[in-house]
Amino acid sequence: MPDTVFTPARCVALVRDPGGAPAVNLAKLRDAGHVDLTKRAEKAGISLSKRGLAGIRAQAVLVLDHSGSMRADYRNGKVQTLVERVLGFALQIDIDGVVPVMPFDTTLHPTVNVGVAAGVGVEDYRGVVDRQIWKSKMGTTDLASALAEIRVMAQKTDAPMFVVVVTDGSPNKRRATTNVVIDLARYPVFLKFVAIREVPYLADLDDLPDSARLLDNVDAKAFEDPSAVTDLAFAEAMVDEWDTWVSAATAAGVLR
């Protein structure tokens, strides 16, 4: 492995609200009628506090597998459920209130912004998968290229990136994907893989040895039925290992 793998490629400041407040005003969100979304964000706040991460800020990004094997998951609402759950978590941390959703299969499709910032109405999250993301033509799983685009974003970011990757299977090119993941350890990027079905390859990524990269930048979870998971359990899964990544990234010079 080249020595450059172990050299930080970018260092950004870790920003926290001194009072531990969420990034979005949850009282206003609740008053606007978005009760379920508010509850998800509140549970995320509980989980963040337990890990010493209250008030932390990051750019949340959702990378969404649009390959043919996930057709049924798009049609039965699983993907929509996960988009809403990720948004609920992101309202605690996201620096601008907008989550870029990046669908990919054989190619990377246009990004769909979902959030609560000016110009991106909170109503956008309802039905966004059917309305803007799902297309009848679905390709293969070129995860390596999707993560390479995350690396392009990481080269310019001024904030840590919390990247959720939703998928249901192994990528087309495992070695190429693993190499991008290893290189992303040099950037302020934490990768949270969420599998709709058990994916052995993601478990392998989660267990990459410390000697293979600058620091551990991956955690993988599986939710066969996302709607059956409680808001708190989902929040706990999102936060798991982020605290240890923050510590490791700070020690390695990726965060300051």
Instruction: Write down the overall mean pLDDT.
Output: 92
Terminal CA distance reads 26 Å
Poorly predicted segments: 1-5
Overall strand count: 6
Write a structural description.
This protein has a six-stranded mixed beta sheet with strand order 3-2-1-4-5-6, with helices on both faces. It starts with 25 loop residues before the first helix and ends with a helix. Helices cover 39% and strands 14% of the residues. It has a single domain (25-252), classed as von Willebrand factor, type A domain (Rossmann fold, 3-Layer(aba) Sandwich). A hairpin with a 7-residue loop joins strand 2 (98-104) and strand 3 (112-115). The relative contact order is 0.19. It is of the alpha/beta class and 256 residues long.
Based on the model shown, name its key terms.
256 residues; alpha/beta; Rossmann fold; 10 helices; disordered N terminus
Brief overview:
The chain has helices at residues 26-31, 35-50, 71-75, 78-93, 128-133, 143-154, 174-184, 200-206, 231-239, 242-252; strands at 59-65, 98-104, 112-115, 161-167, 189-195, 218-222. The chain is an alpha/beta fold and 256 residues long.
